[in-house]
Design goal:
The complex is a heterodimer of chains A (131) and B (531). By secondary structure, chain A is of the alpha/beta class. Helix content of chain A is 45%, strand content 18%. In chain A, helix 1 crosses helix 5, helix 2 packs across helix 3 and helix 3 packs parallel to helix 4. Chain B has 531 residues and is α/β, with parallel strands linked by helices. Chain B has one domain: Alpha-Beta Barrel (TIM Barrel). In chain B, the strands form two sheets. Chain B has a five-stranded parallel beta sheet with strand order 1-10-9-8-7. A five-stranded parallel beta sheet of chain B has the order 2-3-4-5-6, covered by helices on one side. The longest helix of chain B is centred in the last third of the chain and has 23 residues. In chain B, helix 13 links the parallel strand 9 and strand 10. The radius of gyration of chain B is 23 Å and the shape is globular. The model of chain B has no long low-confidence stretch (mean pLDDT 95). Classes of the chains: A alpha/beta (131), B alpha/beta (531). At the A-B interface, helix 1 of A face helix 3, helix 6 and helix 17 of B.
Amino acid sequence: MRIVIAKPGLDGHDRGAKIIARALADAGAEVIYTGLRRTPEQIAEAAVQEDADAVGLSILSGAHLSLTKKLIERLSERGAAEVPVLVGGAIPPRDVERLKALGAAEVFPTGSPMGEVVGAFLRYDRGRAAR
Amino acid sequence: MSEKRESTTPSGIPRKPAYGPSDWDGSSYASGVADPGCFPYTRGVRADGYRGKLWTFRQYSGFGTADESNARYRYLLDQGQTGLSVALDLPTQLGYDSDDPRAEEEVGRVGVAIDTLDDMQRLFAGIALERITTSFTINATAAVLLAMYVAVAKRQGADLRKISGTIQNDILKEYVSRGTWIYPVEPSLRLIVDTIDYCSRELPRFNAISVAGAHFRDAGATAVQELAFTLADGITYVQRCLERGMEIDAFAGNISFFFYTHSDFFEEVAKYRAARRIWARLMRERFGAHDPRSWAFRFGLVCGGSTLQAEQPMNNAIRVAFEAMASVFGGASSIFTAAWDEPFAIPTQESAELALRTQQILAYETGAAEVADPLGGSYYVESLTDATERHVLGIMAEIAERGGMVACVEGGYIQQLIADEAYRKQRRIEAGDDVLVGVNRFRTNGTAHRLELFELDDSSVRTQIARLQAVRARRDPARAGAALAHLRAAAEGTENLMPPLIEAVESYCTLGEICDRLRAAFGEFREPIVI
């Protein structure tokens, strides 16, 4: 399974992104971590090039709604609308449903257990079903 | 809970069930500990502790436009806050104007947006800069913000020699853990030395740098790592100033520090006591400082951060209160107590007020501020201070052996140590080895606490952009263009950049324009990818 973990926008808090990247790698996934300040275009491009099974976004600046929306649009423009986008970070409870309405596959606010996040990613492993 | 369990501090220092004279016998008191106000300042930099001067209540705040933040600052000052701490939005921290496409969605969100001198004037409208101290959490663009602050002070008719405050201006930790870097390491260090040099001559009461460990800590470092990395950064800045030809006593007294206080009470107290001792000795013995001001390790800190939990969020107010008390016993000069709703959003006026009240209760009701270093002489605290010092010196020696902090940051070594520790800690929490109340123990079932969270008013962003464009339209374009050209030329040379930066902000050049000229001259940092 291949997963892109990305930090969109200008936020530099990468503790959560790195912990999840490492936990996914420990669980056997191949993880591509983008580093900081990637644009939705760059993340969509990475997801397509890497043939990712899923994309994880980590956002703690409060800009999660628009960044998620844009990434999903950029994926769609590249014919990769089926790639699930999982979003984590400082997400107020009121925004969980808003994110899902925008098309986020899963949302993990601060404090979500690592095991739960990893389990959610692994469910999107296309290889398990198709390969 | 088993009766005979092994215990270490979160940094891994072994901890016994009880301590006595065999752990610390007091024979080293005069040389290694000493009375409060005496070298090496283990017990504090002031002989009378907080009686002569209480710590500063410095609540980090700022959001939306300068006008909105100015209203919040005036409210906080009316409520008894004693210093300002300016939170800036990410575009301001990264040198983008509010109408830059890269700034979209981030304007005014995690702090106030400052594009031009006009915004800085609005931010301090009705606040006399001579009478307050202001701390700016700003790094890559610190020199530009300092130039704006100086320009506002001049317009208020203030005496620059009386202006006091702090810019964080610590880029090394940004590459490791906070992420608001722009330029590569060398030109960034040059800008920092320029500001320290400028302040030492023009703003003698202003701290041109606050070397920050806080962000290492919140990214996952232990208390011992936090202190070791911070001191190693401090040494780097001192060396760069000396290489510039500055005298140690001309600037060392204006270096301050900034930390996170996390949950383990005594480890935090010991960390601050050890920090003062190590720094005092470094300054006197290694760098040959003669002025006691240069030896004195002064620091501010924040309570909260990653110790705050989204589950049962009101518990966070209690966590912060204990952290604040450890900070006072550690001898902090200024404290920011985070609000309980920080895991979700920036604070509401109500949660921000409770956070301030926490410090006021500590200062005025508990007696904690009455006696300097009240834990000094405790077998446990002195022993833990000694052990912390040993561990910190060990890590600092390892960093020096690897070529110093710049090499360790550029190569990703520090990033790797922090990522390892963050992952280890998370696994301990998930395994239940580290207890978090309400998270992995004592969970409540049922309806979650109803949250009233802060929501940014979208009209703030439109106001900010309109104001920026109005400033661009009404300024003297020839003067602004000349100032930018001068800045670019200066950046390619070696002169101190503060005078051309002040000229540029006074010509109403925007932050984005200024940083674009510096990007063109300096290039941009390339981040090593570490997980």
